[in-house]
Amino acid sequence: MTAATTRAALAEAAGHARAGRYDLARRALEPVGDDADALDLLARVHAQQGDLAAADGYWARVQALDPAHEGAREGRRRIRRIWSRRPKPVARRVGAAAAVLLLVAAGTAAGRLLSPAPEEDRAVADELDRLASAVDALESTEAPEPTEAPSTASPLDPVLASLQDPRWTATAEDGHVSVVLAESLFPDGGTALPDDSGDFLADLAAAVEGLHVTVVGHTNDIPTGPGSRYDDNAALGLARALAAAQALADAGGPALADIGIATAADEDPPYPNDTEADRTRNQTVTFLVTP
């Protein structure tokens, strides 16, 4: 695309995003490809919808193109802050506020496109300050004693039941089921899937039919070397997530466009990086499955 058509696509997508037409915003950006401003806007759209894993993945791609990108750095920092918090009984009451707070990283073309007029900027800043105070107040407040015995049933129960398999461990977490593979999926520093991965991916694809899946790429704690195709572990983890998502789609899973992509790099690994065996097992992806 030419620079003019790219700017036009960004403007169109930003208009849809401001109006809450997120599907149309994403569709307008599809032809743009690997453009930092377009990827930044996609990250903001996903953050606004509360899909933090997808937002983090797009911001990781922005950083791979522009390591000094302030909006991507700030967006990922805020996501890491949210992910580092322990789930609390009141957490769902502040989910929308958390998503809004992710969108205030400034200084990028996408940020400017989504921004209101200057006088509205001040009002938004005041509102964000109020929301931040509300978040802090809610986190410091103990949940009241329930007046009725809570139901023990969870919408994740059937998802968890469908994902029982000795080749991975499925665990119900905050709003999703996390699938951690028992063995490594990738060679050291690489993104090529083993020849025998087709069987387990086909079984996983059948188990997640009709469910939403986000693939999170991981690495161990050893940085990428001078001869690597990837600048850092964030880029390597994202490439692994893309490879696994494509293979899952090819095995009969959700369409690639419907699979969330994210990278955890060497942070929050599935296994502790304290033995060579576990470092090898961390050359992998995890699958986050939601109803």
Explained architecture:
There is one protein chain. By secondary structure, this protein is an alpha+beta fold. It folds into two domains: 3-139, Serine Threonine Protein Phosphatase 5, Tetratricopeptide repeat; 157-290, 2-Layer Sandwich (60s Ribosomal Protein L30, Chain: A). Helix content is 48%, strand content 10%. The chain has twelve helices and five strands. A five-stranded mixed sheet has the order 1-2-5-3-4. The longest helix has 22 residues, at 118-139. The protein is globular, with a radius of gyration of 20 Å. Residues 85-112 and 114-121 have low confidence and may be disordered. Residues 139-159 are annotated as: Disordered. Keywords: Cell projection, Cilium, Flagellum, Membrane, Transmembrane, Transmembrane helix. This is Flagellar motor protein MotB. Residues 140-155 have a biased composition (Low complexity).
